[in-house]
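In this section we walk through a basic example: taking a raw amino acid sequence and producing a predicted 3D structure, encoded as discrete structure tokens. The instruction is simple. Fold the sequence below.
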Amino acid sequence: MDQEFVRLLTVANEAQITRTLPAGSDPRRVGRELRRLVAGYVGESSYRHDPAILERLRELSGELVASQHPDGTYDIGNLHSPPDTAFLVQDLCVVWELLEGNEPAAGVRSAIFGILQKAGPALASGGVHTPNHRWEVSAALARINHILPDQRYVDRIDEWLAEGIDAGPDGIYSERSSIYAAAVTNPSLLTIAWRQDRPELIEYVRRNLEATLHLLEPNGEVDTIASRRQDQFGVFDGWPYLLQFRELALLDGDGRFAAVAQSIERRGSGELGANELGDSLAEVLERPELAAPLPPATELPADFVKEFPSQASVRIRRGSRTATIFGGTDFHEVPVIASGLSVNPTFFKLRHGDAILDSVRLAPQFFGTGHFHSEYLRRWSQSVVELGAELAVPYYQPLAPERRTPDGRYALTPDGRFYASMDFGQRSRDYHKLRTAITVAEVENGFDLTFELTGSEAPYAIELCFRPGGVLSGVEELDESGNYQLESGTGVYTVGEDRIEFGPGSGAARVMMDPGERYRMLNGSLVPDGLRVYLTGRAPGVQRLAIRTT
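The resulting token sequence is shown next.
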């Protein structure tokens, strides 16, 4: 075993144990706390066989016995939830395994055994909500079946797997979420492969990790711009990938995967530390083979242009400079704002060392339609990409005589931006159209973005949002809320010795960054966190934006 790696996880786990679980925590958090405590209790930790830890284990397991419904499920956000119960069950199965042969903890183990007896049938018959829930439930059933063999559990796993794993040829799962791939889908598939002897499932994880090599940022973050889940607007530090990259590095002898695992471990001794890595200790104690010495690390891809067709994105990396071009939102196909849909209007992002441009967005003031969302992504050459969309907003004509009613009451119908009792579908229309094409071309030391808007007249704003921590120069401060305008010349964003230059400015005209009717109606916001610089213009017209790194 790699004792240094085990010690890293142990120290992180010890720090987690010092934190107090908030009162009234839901069963999933209680189950995770149990797993953390047990890892310290049975591992080579300062908490090994600590009577206080044992007492806490008894208390928490008792809470879970008391809160389980007669049907075997738990209320965890959702009521009587099989998938949320499955997340808890996976942790409890690990706890049960780690306490084997520990006589003082026999009562805890017995309590967990009773929970699993009730939960198994519920998971073998209950439904799910999301794609990844199928694999989480199947992994939980695989674990329960190892403890309490039951053909019903195997049959249910087969039933879910028969739907097919929702992964594209490029390794991206249907939810397009790095967090859910790392925290749910990949570990679930690996668990099923392990406990049910289904090695063919490992290939899906391998392909996802291959894809992730090209989504990694130099600082270890993972690009999430294309996600259909909550992480599409956030920053993901990638730590949950640790054991997956370790397992596949050991299985395949892959030095690239070993390099990623070692990178997470190095960060784990610093900024990650006790925040997260301690959660891996229990799995390593359950499966010591995951702590075997890694194969020699090899260099990660650092000079490439990589397209991901399943999410209409292109990743470009040149050493410490990376960029993402994204044209794959679901907004045109499903024009609503909801979890499970890609609605992030960011179409370009760039980083150079520590200088990070988290998003570039465009918002025309065009009948409350909101931000530009590309309908497509086309590559004209290796690193020249076009994005585009057309908006067509109608004015409605009077109803035909045969469609009129004496009481003036008509069907409540959608326009696309709002609803009204106007029976819109039965009316002829006059359209105002706005066509937007954005070309992103890689050039030496940066990118050229060309905005071409044709059709109706409309003012628009371009927003560049830089991550906090740097200094802006060459721009006009609009207020004290982090808003600036580039009126002329070139703006510069600097972090240490890393600089991103952008321009030219386009004048002093102010144009509001309009999120659109869908957001305004609900008092929603699409204002990103950071230092926001605006350039403005008016359609029809062409505007060019040069972004350079120095």
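Looking at the output, two observations stand out. The two ends are 44 Å apart (CA to CA). The longest helix spans residues 106-125. In the next section we compare this with other chains.
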